[in-house]
Amino acid sequence: MIDPIANRMALAEAIAQEAGQRALEYFNTRDALIIEDKANPQDMVSQADQEVELLLRTRIAASFPDDAILGEEGGGTAGTSGFTWVLDPIDGTAPFLAGLPHWGVVIAIVEGGKTVAGVIEQPMAKEVFTARAGAGAWINGTPMQVGADMRVENCNIGAGISYRTPRGPFMAFLDNLLEAGGMFYRNGSGAVMLASVAAGRLGGYYEPHMNPWDCLAGLLMVEEAGGRVLPFPALPDGGTVLAGTPIIFDHLSTLLEVSNRT
Ligand code: IPD
Ligand code: CA
Ligand code: CA
Q1: Which domain CATH number covers 125?
Q2: Same domain flag for 44 and 113
Q3: Which of 27, 91, 100, 215 to probe ligand 1 with, by most ligand atoms within 8 A of CB?
Q4: Which of 53, 146, 164, 206 could disulfide-link 89, Cβ–Cβ 3.0 to 4.6 Å?
Q5: Domain that holds residue 12
Q6: CA 207 to the chain's CA centroid
Q7: Average pLDDT by consecutive 10-residue portion of the chain (262 residues)?
Q8: What pLDDT, on the 0 to 100 scale, is given for residue 250?
Q9: Integer Cα distance of 113 and 85 in angstroms
Q10: Which residue's C-alpha comes closest to atom 5 of ligand 1?
């Protein structure tokens, strides 16, 4: 029997790997890249982002021509199959262009408003994170679990911010996190940080606003690894991201409520 999600997931893994290698070639010759600002000088795009997304889109259209695609750089292409591929060719563009290692190719597959599969390929770490709804989450094929013994007081919590939102509630959240004995971590790739929650490396993640291509794959990974996440709006909207182990998610939710009232 044909499993339409398994078929798409297999393609997603294969093209994420191919795209990751293409991105790595650009990374190794990044001095030659022409960099343009998007919304502001912290929000950049280069030929690497555009070409890697084009590669993904070409591969998807060749195998599943009736699927919709929503990509960070190329926007939306309509489809008729009910499946949408949500693409971030390079999450962590700023670290990528600066020569730092935390960046990855991110693919989420959405069906009927639900994320059914996700892949995050991180070439510099030689790691691929995968998840399928109802089936689990894996790192290089080994099942992932969120950190069972983690508490806000004994681990790092990923935190992200962009110039898309005012910084007041974020600063209040950091203050409340530190007051609670916690510690924050940021590496410039929200997708990799969410995958790190699923892998039990970070206890949780908070960002006031992310776009769906940044976070849908990672949110599925956290849930499938036994964690909890704040419900995320339907495509193509962005929204607040909160994720963590069950205990940390509850704690961070309380801190966030207090922070948003500040
Ligand atoms: C960004 C990164 C960053 C997060 C931003 C995203 P980009 O994506 O994930 O960590 O804080 O919200 O926009 O621009 O590197 O693809
Ligand atoms: Ca991104
Ligand atoms: Ca990107």
Answers
A1: 3.30.540.10
A2: yes
A3: 91
A4: 53
A5: 4-143
A6: 12
A7: 92 98 96 82 86 98 98 96 98 96 98 97 98 98 97 98 94 97 98 98 98 98 98 97 98 95 83
A8: 98
A9: 12
A10: 162
